[in-house]
Amino acid sequence: MLGDTAKVQAVLQDYRVAPITEAEKALFQFLDKVNRQSHQISLADVDEVRCAGWTDEALYDAIGVCAQFNYYNRWIDATGVQDMPALGYQMSGHRLATEGYARPPAPASDLGPVNDHSHPDAPRADRNGSPPPGKNVTMEPMFLREVEEREGGGQYAELIRQTRAAGAPVSQIFHLFAFKPAMTDHLSYFTQELMRGPSPLSPGLRELIAAFTSHHNQCRYCANSHAAAAGLLLGNRGLVEAVLENYTASALSPAEKALFGFIERVTLKSWEIRRGEVDQVRQAGWSDEALYDAITVCALFNFYNRWVHAAGVQVMPQEWHQVSGKRLAERGYVLR
Asked: I need a surface site. Which of 82, 85, 195, 208 has the fewest CB within 10 A?
């Protein structure tokens, strides 16, 4: 698509000396940090790449691509997808360049209503009878100011208006969903099916995997909300906290400890996973379907954690994460 294979190879080898512009080098330096140390990204990092000439929309898209391929990389590594011959990659690249990834999506209106709890946290006065507590809470702005300040569209723009009308603080991840709803509506439905669809893993265990992954990535926003959801669904918040502190010393069963040891590897070193490790966790009693679902939850939250970190979504007061977890536990991610 760039018409320059040599430039692509140079960027992959070392973007700092590749024949790309200084603005592009600044962007790739930022994405390198999103990949490796997203929990350390600050407003100064975003301002630096913005000063190189990139708009907030460009950064939103770049962060989304980078985070998405943190999902894909772990999904592929941990399921053991094998290399193809060089010709196979050439054919695959030609198809992606000429046809893209999927047929055009259905209009957002055809997807049905998106749950107002599709990511934490959307208190509403008309559901609870009165505005929820803590309505004077304020948070620091997101790093991507244009994303937060633009009204956006679709279901999430309406949700933001409803939340503000209820006097509640807006969970900033709503702005990430509202900014480009034609893209993010599909993300909501994917998350719902993964976290609440049929699976050998209970919804509570899937939420615990989400919290565990987020904790390892030092994403307090996701860890707090999904730990609250896991505690409610499992009926044991103490177990959730123990797993996040040290799963090997927690009250998990030996089979569950084997699964969480594997998930830890998927999060931290997925490229090192070999068939023997999968065989080991399979021998602990987990089916391939269970492993597929666990890997996919872990990979998805490697996406969410980087999306949240790099866009500057701020942690909410703990009581709001509890409200978020309760709604996730009771209603899931998408209204039926």
From this structure: 82
